[in-house]
Write a structure and sequence with these properties.
homotetramer; Tetracycline Repressor, domain 2; DNA-binding; 10 helices
Chain lengths: 199, 199, 199, 199
DNA sequence: CATGAATGAGGCTTCATTCAT
DNA sequence: GATGAATGAAGCCTCATTCAT
């Protein structure tokens, strides 16, 4: 008797394991056997769910994004004022918790791989399109309420998102000069400067 | 009679080839044989100069940075006004020429690898320290001349550099929404906002 | 369903092949590929059972000893008189059959390797301890029955065993002056001299 | 101006280095580069004197034997009584000094290699022929003086030499049960038993 | 005579993938 | 559905040998 739920669970379990192994060992060092070990199963089973390693990795990247988005759903659906929401959005990307760090690491690994994999480039583009829409939406909302100064909301969004990515990289690499605290300061300053009357 | 210059040349030749191959095939797909082919020698020769592949890659990353810095030496030594120099600095990082694109690709590959290699983290940190110093210096200079508004110059530098990194990633990944032109706009806007009286 | 017996069989099969190849090609010339060919499998399979070549070789040496000991089990368990058993023991080491020659060759290769491998030294020591015990036991038995003359049984055992090794080397090397027949004579003479009343 | 003595010196120097490296690293681990390092020269120079590695190794084995024989010349030419000379001969083979240990190690490595190299088998055979002649001569001399009991002198020589080889192997392998002291005892006992009237 | 940079064939080892159970 | 033994292609690295200087 086929039990679809079992399959779905197994799939998620394997993808989660894959993300963890990518974050720990690094993309290039991931072996199917590692994933199997981490997921508590066998290489045979991994290949039962994913034909090739490439497919597995790709699915893991998508999984990483989906989980990431879901963790922000509360913020995105919030009714708080735009400034507050923007700050919360930024803070949710600070690599503080283990979960966030893992997600960032996976994402960083993706960039290197995506340079040579059109499929991953599309994934990246759609994800960033999503984020850009969300952030630009919040800014536009703030401008409508006369909270934020004028200027291209999409340009501001691009700047903020890029800044977060660039800073996160340095934090992830354990830079002695770029800590989570400094990352927060830099981002908050940028958001602050968007206000019509800085607090 | 040993000719030291030959050795140094050969080394540089191999490192250049390594950077090119990393940029083309991606870090994880680099084979020593590829490097040898590109450099016009044999795998034996590559290993004559670099004991292991890891050592080769690490040296290539350092080479990539050294070359990158040298290409900016003119800007850094320039006597132009701070605003002008900051714009030139930003523009020099736009992934337009083949050389710049290659350097960016190598750098992007480094991030993924550095997550798991302390030696590369140190390299990254020292390089970003250098850039931070340079940019903060320019900003401080502009503030002294009353061109730039007040505020922590290091914070501004961190924001600008991170923004460049984050935007470059998206451009390199061939994002349909983030082109070189948009990247330039976003960066220039940020620099513009630093001016006391925006042009 | 895993079949443990299959694994054990495969292991023994590979070890047997390894001993044969060592005896034929010599220790230093053994290639994992040779072993695989001889065992009728692939190099991948050899490495599935033995992580490294060193481990494989070591296990082969142990295998060689275990098999060797088992071939003497009848003699060791025999109830014949001590003189008879000692002669049989000596004769069992004459490099006459293919099996014995192979075992001797493997053992000779081990000596060279063991000079630089503590693990093999321990193996050698435990094996010779075993032989010394057995031979000394037979001699002590003979002395108790007044067949053999007095004197340190362990000393006699050491002399006899060393003599067998030294002679076997010369025979194995195809010496024109040391044939199996002469080896037998020399050993039998020594045993003869142990008798209270030489026959 | 060619200086033959320089060449001869260099040759000896390289051969000595080769023996030392064989004794230290083991035959299979010897690299031409190691020999060059030890001899304080370059691989190019080693190959200037020896066309191939095989030739180098073979010459080193011969060198090892020649040196070994020369160290015994005093004993062989001695006018002492046969018993005394036999004991001295045995003692000269006890692996006590560094020089003797090195020579034994090289010799042990030779056995393994000679199994598969006819040229080395011939070398071994001629060397053992020499030793057999010497020892048998001493024994025959002792018998003529009524010191040693009757019996085939060549047989006794073979037994003694083989015993020395077999015991030396165990000592070299660092056996806990076979020390230099025990080796001496065993050999001396055998020689003692050759006397007509044991002391 | 001597050097050591360069070569490239060859061997060990890894690991994604398959398939019989 | 799941397993893991088996495979073999592929890659890193070693090292004897050559040759221009």
């Amino acid at each position: 008797m086929p039990r679809p739920s079992v399959e779905a669970q197994r799939r998620a379990q394997i993808l989660q394991a894959t993300c963890e192994v990518i974050a720990e060992r690094g993309f290039r060092a991931v072996r199917v056997a590692d994933v199997a070990d981490r997921a508590g199963t066998s290489t045979g089973t991994v290949h039962y769910y994913f034909d090739t390693k490439r497919e597995l990795i790709h699915a893991a990247f998508e999984h990483n994004f989906a989980e990431s988005l879901q963790r922000r759903s509360a913020i995105l659906a919030s009714a708080a004022d735009p400034h507050q929401r923007l700050v919360e959005f930024v803070d949710s990307y600070l690599p503080t918790s283990q979960t966030t760090v893992t997600a960032w690491r996976v994402w960083t690994e993706l960039w290197g791989e995506a340079l040579h994999t059109p499929g991953l480039q599309e994934l990246n583009d759609s994800v960033y399109g999503e984020w850009r829409r969300v952030v630009a939406g919040i800014i536009r909302d703030g401008q409508a309420r006369n909270l934020f100064r004028t200027g291209d909301p999409v340009g501001y969004a691009n700047a903020l998102i890029a800044m977060i990515d660039g800073l996160a990289i340095q934090v992830l690499l354990g830079s002695k000069n770029m800590t989570v605290a400094r990352m927060r300061e830099v981002c908050h300053s940028y958001v602050q400067d968007l206000l019509v009357v800085p607090a």
